[in-house]
Write a structure and sequence with these properties.
This protein is of the alpha/beta class and 450 residues long. The protein has two domains: 25-91 and 337-447, Aspartate Aminotransferase, domain 1 (Alpha-Beta Complex), CATH 3.90.1150.10; 97-335, 3-Layer(aba) Sandwich (Aspartate Aminotransferase, domain 2). It has helices at residues 11-14, 32-40, 97-107, 118-130, 143-158, 198-201, 240-251, 270-275, 301-304, 323-335, 338-359, 388-391, 396-408, 429-447, and strands spanning 8-9, 24-25, 64-68, 71-74, 79-82, 136-140, 162-166, 179-180, 187-188, 190-191, 204-207, 219-224, 254-258, 281-284, 295-299, 363-368, 371-376, 411-412. The longest helix is centred in the last third of the chain and has 22 residues, at 338-359. The radius of gyration is 22 Å and the shape is globular. The two termini are 38 Å apart. The structure holds pyridoxal-5'-phosphate (PLP).
């Protein structure tokens, strides 16, 4: 059989009404392994985002055919309770009817024009209404584009070059922010990956999370995850965000909150509302696209109007403010009422209890509102980590064992020990009851290896 004759599953053939087995076109059901193997011959490492690879946990990824609510189905028809939810981009659950309807309606009107459209106006307004610091909003295509745009904007506005970021925070795949820190003190960044020249991070300072660094008048911006959600989940220490605000004000530096995860995940007003600190600029992504590619920068009017075409800092994007992405984003935001966050927070609290009860001692579960993180190993002895040095004490081999035990029991976590766990509108009580049983079974299988 030639390679192209390997049958593949067409999710459309499955229909929208929740079939249990994936319907495949061609002969028989392909295995995850066959499909992934074939993918690796077309795509480096078989993934389009290296974070999705199973490098950290071993083995090969399940290949997703479709999702429904809290669940994803792989191409073999196996169902998993999904705690990845597209790394937090999906909050209503997979294939939520509001999103599907909005996308169907938008698609027939055309998918991209290169001219202003009503939905981009509405989405920008919807963000501004809910996040008061965002007097103006520029839409773009990814969180990475948002963070790279704020770096240029801050430098262009202040005429300063230096940017302060925090060890263990993640701001996407953009050179200036792909800097590795030293240990314990603020240091000049080292290239965080091959391909980033020293020059690209020569003006990036990496400071330990949860300590207000020295901020002087050479600093253009301080960029921070107001709740760190890419080193497990690490809460801001009391006074940390307020301290950054005050120090930035004294130095004339911009305070930027990277709310790509926390925006519309912690609540309608994001982390800035929860902690009562108003940044100059905010980066968004993930939830605001309802599962489609999106990013946004919002902020003070005078700062935002430094962007072209009004101001001198260039920004452009062929697909920016895309009709499909804004349709999905608006549909997502239309469902997200304050009550919904109360409910998701209740589910997150339950998830934290489920993990704690199943795993027992040696596991630290952290939670900030709707965000849940898990840190394995005795080193923290139950204490919540407050920075990357502490978060890094996570026992990665234990995580890999837990990951695979859960996968075998029909629960999907992200294949990395530092990712947050996501629940949303799809994870109703029945799903959470089911999850509790599967967690206990997985924990037991690791405790008594066969
Ligand atoms: C995911 C993420 C990004 C990058 O967003 P992409 O859409 O993946 O480019 C930036 N910052 C934070 C905090 C993120 O979690």
């Amino acid at each position: 059989m030639s390679e192209s004759a390997i049958p593949f599953c067409d999710p459309i053939a499955c229909g929208t009404a929740g079939c249990d087995a994936v319907v495949c076109i061609g002969k028989g059901v392909p295995s995850n392994d066959t499909l992934f193997e074939r993918t690796t011959r077309a795509i480096p490492g078989g993934v389009n985002s290296s974070i999705r690879a199973f490098k950290a946990v071993g083995g090969r990824p399940y290949v997703v055919a479709r999702g429904q609510g809290a669940h994803v189905y792989d191409v073999e028809g196996r169902r998993y309770i999904d705690l990845v939810q597209s790394y937090g981009a999906v909050i209503l659950g997979h294939a939520h009817p509001a999103i599907t309807r909005a996308l169907n309606a938008a698609a027939v009107d055309g998918t991209s024009f290169g001219a202003p459209t009503p939905r981009e106006m509405k989405l920008a307004e919807a963000i501004s209404e809910r996040v008061p610091s965002c007097e103006r909003v520029r839409l773009m295509n990814s969180g990475t584009e948002a963070t790279s745009t704020v770096v240029r904007l801050a430098r262009g506005l202040t005429g300063r070059k230096k940017i302060i970021i925090f060890d263990g925070n993640f701001h996407g795949a953009t050179d200036a922010l792909l800097a590795a820190g030293g240990s314990g003190v603020a240091t000049l960044g080292l290239p965080g990956t091959a391909g980033v020249p020293e020059e690209a991070v020569a003006n990036t300072i990496v400071a330990p999370y949860n300590v207000v660094p020295d901020i002087d008048d050479t600093i253009a911006a301080v960029i921070v995850e107001p709740v760190a959600a890419n080193m497990g989940v690490v809460a801001p220490a009391p006074g940390f965000l307020e301290g950054l605000r005050a120090a930035c004000d004294r130095a004339g530096a911009l305070l930027v909150f990277d709310e790509v995860i926390t925006g519309f995940r912690l609540g309608l007003g994001g982390a800035q509302e929860r902690f009562g600190v108003r940044p100059d600029l905010t980066c968004f992504g993930k939830v605001i696209g309802g599962g489609l590619p999106i990013g946004a920068v919002g902020g003070r009017r005078d700062v935002m109007e430094t962007l072209s075409p009004i101001g001198k800092v260039f920004h452009a994007g062929t697909l920016a403010g895309n009709p499909m992405a804004t349709a999905a984003g608006l549909a997502a935001l239309s469902q997200l009422t304050p009550d919904v966050y109360v409910e998701i927070e209740r589910r997150a609290a339950r998830l934290a209890r489920i993990i704690g009860d199943a795993m027992g001692g040696g596991t630290t579960v952290t939670r900030v509102g709707t965000l849940v993180g898990v840190h394995l190993g005795e080193k923290l002895s139950g204490r919540s980590p407050s920075n990357f040095d502490e978060a890094k004490t996570t026992d990665e081999p234990s995580y890999a064992r837990l990951f695979h035990a859960l996968l075998a029991n029909g629960v999907a976590l992200a294949p990395g020990a530092y990712e947050a766990l996501f629940v949303g509108l799809g994870h109703d009580d029945a799903v959470m009851d089911d999850l509790a049983e599967r967690f206990v079974a997985a924990a037991r299988s690791i405790a008594t290896p066969d």
